[in-house]
Design brief:
Elements (H helix, E strand, L loop, with lengths): L1 E5 L3 H13 L4 E6 L11 H5 L14 H8 L2 E4 L1 E7 L4 E6 L5 E5 L2 E4 L3 E3 L12 E3 L3 H14 L3 E5 L3 H12 L3 E6 L10 H13 L3 E4 L3 E4 L3 E4 L4 E3 L2 E4 L3 E3 L2 H5 L23 E3 L6 E2 L6 E2 L4 H15 L13 E5 L2 E7 L2 H6 L4 E9 L9 E9 L5 E8 L3 H13 L4 H5 L15 H13 L4 E3 L1 H9 L5 E4 L3 H6 L6 E2 L2 H7 L9 E4 L4 H12 L5 E4 L2 H11 L1
Parallel strand pairs: 1-2, 1-7, 2-3, 7-18, 9-16, 10-11, 10-16, 11-12, 26-30, 27-28, 27-29, 29-30
Antiparallel strand pairs: 4-5, 5-6, 8-17, 13-14, 14-15, 19-20, 21-22, 22-25, 23-24, 24-25
Protein name: Rhodanese domain-containing protein
GO molecular function, one term: oxidoreductase activity
Family: Belongs to the class-III pyridine nucleotide-disulfide oxidoreductase family.
Length: 547
């Protein structure tokens, strides 16, 4: 059997490695138009910022290494220019010599990845404007930084690469401005979580321009469509990527709804003996079952292993993804998995939303605050998605949620998890467990939750609400929810007698615990509808500040 793989970064090399482990006799050839193979795209910002000393660290594998280790032939700077699926041949151009040759295959794998998008901006082709996608990009940027010593950088786009570059360039002493076309950074986050990261960026002296689009780039400035002129010595394009599907389209391979190659759970395309893996292929959501495109190295490696197994007679199948992502933004870790609130609502779910603010471990051992936003389906209690922002313990909790959602856990299941506890690592009731407990209580209708946005919407619609701040008077006077009255919890049983039990009532404290206690008091006193403000006043103030 002869296998030809087009592309040799994460997915392509994973196909080759797994196929060789299964079959010692298969002939495996990879063609790659780039100079480098099997490299870490995600590590590039950290090389440019100096956390990674040598660029070679990001390219631990070479073509000769693969030949010795796996008996796989990798040809860099060789571009596959056309494919004949009837004859099962590919035409290959050596980009160094311009020599053209034809090669044949029994099985073909598209691992052609994705390319960075280039926005339609005047001046985008200048020497000080860079993409951040390949090792060659990294080398060129590093050379420019060292030679030109730029002082001011503009980043167009506020996704993973844009935010990571903002952090790393700031560490190098550059003044950084981010231009983002939408009204928030990180579009896979809900706005009420994104604003926390936006606030942190500004505290780190990163200038953040939302609802802006770059219109033109000159040698020393970037001008936006709204007329803002930003001094800039170097510009980075971080506006996303597009799957490299042109070769596949030329031979009639079907694309999916996301614009990437459509594959089944064995990574097979619409044409026989042709597979697609990695950033060129779409996946599907574990939650909804629908197509999803989230180009990440982790997913690419997984897809590659599955295809390599299937091609050589194995029975691995792709089980879908949750679209999990995590990144560091200065002192914050930001993670998400599954559906956001806006995505869940768009999918037709009746959602329950909780903002849980808890320390990552015992306060007396330096626990740092975590903000967990969890979304569940009211009908089934199934956890649909989670977003977390915090300085410590984000990855640990996120991976627990990923596991739980993957196995279709309900909110109540989270409370019953026997998670590791000791004061240096967690709290007695871990934030994951507390999230499940509070969500289930809300779903059961005993302890209803209300988000800051819902309060604002209900007030704007003219609905009467009784809003009770249960904190100490000094805390209330410092900052409180609009329209709230102050009744500390210790006085609530007596003063609540003067309130109308028929009017929908909201209780809150700083983060939610005392508000929940007040909610129980009022429910037991016969109040017909009582909500606890999700995340308390702290969440409300953060939300309203960032609107």
């Amino acid at each position: 059997m002869k296998i030809i793989i087009i592309g040799s970064v994460a997915a392509g090399t994973s196909v080759a490695a797994k196929a060789r482990r299964n079959d010692e006799n298969a002939e495996i050839t990879l063609y790659n138009a780039d100079y480098d193979i099997s490299y870490s795209i995600c590590g590039i910002p950290y090389f440019l910022g100096g956390e990674v000393d040598e660029v070679d660290t990001l390219t631990p594998r070479s073509a000769p290494w693969f030949k010795v280790r796996y008996n796989v032939d990798i040809h860099t700077r060789h571009e596959v220019t056309s494919i004949d699926p009837e004859k099962k041949t590919v035409t290959v151009k050596d980009l160094g010599t311009n020599e053209i040759k034809e090669d044949n295959y029994d099985t073909l794998v598209f691992a052609t990845g994705a390319s960075p998008t280039t926005p339609a901006i005047t001046g985008v082709d200048q020497d000080h404007v860079f993409h951040v996608r390949t090792i060659q990009h990294a080398i060129a940027i590093d050379k420019y930084l060292n030679a030109k010593k730029p002082k001011k950088a503009t980043i167009i786009g506020a996704g993973f690469i844009g935010l990571e570059m903002a952090e790393q360039l700031s560490h190098k002493g550059l003044e950084v401005t981010i231009i983002q076309r939408g009204n928030q950074i990180m579009p896979h986050l809900d706005k009420d979580m994104a604003i926390r990261v936006e606030e942190h960026l500004r505290k780190q002296n990163v200038t953040l321009l939302l609802n802006e689009e770059a219109a033109s780039i000159s040698e020393k400035t970037v001008e936006t469509k709204n007329g803002n002129v930003i001094d800039s010595d170097i510009v980075f394009l971080a506006t996303g990527v597009k799957p490299n599907t042109s070769l596949a389209e030329d031979i009639g391979v079907e694309l999916g709804s996301c614009g990437a190659i459509k594959v089944n759970n064995r990574m097979q395309t619409s044409l026989p003996d042709i597979y697609a893996v990695g950033d060129v292929a779409e996946s599907f959501s574990i939650v909804t079952g629908k197509s999803i495109y989230r180009p990440l190295g982790s997913t690419a490696n997984k897809m590659g292993r599955i295809a390599g197994d299937v091609i050589t007679g194995g029975d691995l199948e792709h089980r879908g993804i949750l679209g999990t992502g995590i990144l560091r933004v200065f002192d914050l870790a930001v993670g998400y998995t599954g559906l956001s609130e806006k995505e869940a609502v768009a999918e037709g779910y009746d959602v329950e939303v909780l903002h849980n603010i808890k320390p990552s471990r015992a306060d007396y051992l330096g626990g740092k605050e975590l903000v967990i936003k969890a979304i569940a389906d009211r009908e089934t209690s199934r956890i649909l998605g989670v977003q977390i922002v915090g300085q410590d313990g984000v990855d640990k909790r996120l991976d627990v949620f990923v596991t739980a959602i993957s196995f279709k856990a309900k909110a109540e299941d989270l409370f019953h998890l026997d998670l590791a506890y000791a004061p240096p690592f967690s709290t007695t009731k871990d934030p994951v467990m507390y999230t499940g407990m509070a969500l289930q209580n809300a779903i059961d209708k005993k302890n209803k939750l209300i988000t800051p946005q819902e309060i604002i919407d209900r007030i704007d619609s003219g609905e009467a609400l009784q809003i009770i701040d249960t904190r100490a008077t000094k805390q209330y006077e410092a900052a409180h929810v609009d329209g709230a009255i102050n009744i500390p919890l210790a006085k609530l049983r007596e003063e609540a007698k003067g309130l109308d039990t028929n009017i929908p009532t909201v209780t809150y404290c700083n983060k939610g615990v005392t508000g929940n206690a007040a909610q129980n008091v009022l429910i037991n006193m016969g109040f017909k509808e009582v909500f606890n403000l999700s995340g308390g006043n702290k969440n409300y103030q953060s939300f309203t500040k960032g609107r």
